[in-house]
Each structure stands twice: as structure tokens, then as C-alpha cells.
């Protein structure tokens, strides 16, 4: 952040919005999570997995993804 001529704090963008979105949705962690959820959804629809196992798997995948995001943010923010 920096200040303009009137002493107001301004934010200088460092990249494009579309670049930030593309980076977020093409990360390895996101793609692996989506892949695991897609495969398990197909298995559920074809009857190869019970609904209770599916709910547990979805909770586990989303929990691991969230925990990975927290760790990534902690390690890459310098804090």
C-alpha cells in the first residue's frame, strides 16, 4: 500500500482479476479435491458406494482441502 498526494492510503493492484481466478482454480490442491469429489460422486450414482461413505468422504476431502489452505497461507505469508 502507498499514499496518494492527499495522504489517503491506496491499494496498487499487482495482477489482473482473471489471472488471480485462474491461479486459484488451477492449483494442484483444488484440482485434486475436485477430482476426488467427481470420482466419488460417480461411484455413488453407479451404486458402488453407500451414501454414508460418500458423506464421510466429502467431509474428509473438504477438511483436508481447508487444512491445506490454512497451512499454505501460514507458510507463504511469512507469519
Tell me about this structure.
This protein has a two-stranded antiparallel sheet with strand order 1-2. The longest helix is centred in the last third of the chain and has 26 residues, at 51-76. β1 (2-3) and β2 (9-10) form a beta hairpin. α2 runs antiparallel to α3 (51-76). The protein is mainly alpha-helical and 79 residues long. Helices cover 67% and strands 5% of the residues. The chain has one domain (2-76).
Give a quick rundown of the structure.
By secondary structure, the chain is mainly alpha-helical. The chain contains 3 helices and 2 strands; from the N terminus they run ββααα. The protein starts with a strand and ends with a helix.
What features would you highlight for this structure?
elongated, two-stranded antiparallel ribbon
Count of helical regions: 3
What's the N-to-C terminus distance?
Answer: 18 Å
Series of H and E elements = EEHHH
Number of strands: 2
Large-scale geometry: elongated
Number of domains: 1
As an assembly, this protein is single chain
Kindly report the average pLDDT value: 85
Radius of gyration: 19 Å
What class do helices, strands and sheet pairing give? mainly alpha
Beta-strand content estimate: 5-15%
List the helices and strands and how they pair.
Elements: E1 2-3, E2 9-10, H1 17-25, H2 28-45, H3 51-76
Antiparallel strand pairs: 1-2
Amino acid at each position: 500500500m502507498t499514499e496518494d498526494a492527499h495522504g489517503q492510503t491506496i491499494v496498487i493492484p499487482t495482477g489482473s482479476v482473471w489471472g488471480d481466478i485462474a491461479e486459484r482454480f488451477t492449483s494442484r490442491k483444488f484440482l485434486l479435491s475436485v477430482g476426488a469429489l467427481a470420482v466419488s460422486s460417480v461411484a455413488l450414482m453407479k451404486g458402488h458406494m453407500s451414501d454414508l461413505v460418500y458423506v464421510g468422504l466429502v467431509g474428509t476431502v473438504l477438511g483436508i482441502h481447508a487444512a491445506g489452505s490454512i497451512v499454505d497461507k501460514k507458510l507463504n505469508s511469512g507469519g
